[in-house]
Amino acid sequence: MKTEKISFEPKEVDIEIGKTSSIR
Question: Which residues fall within 8 angstroms of residue 5, CB to CB, at 6 or more apart?
Fold first, then answer.
């Protein structure tokens, strides 16, 4: 089900993951 979320919005997910990675 993770692929489905990234399938219809990979840019938004990438930005969210990048922000979380920066904070971590």
Answer: 13
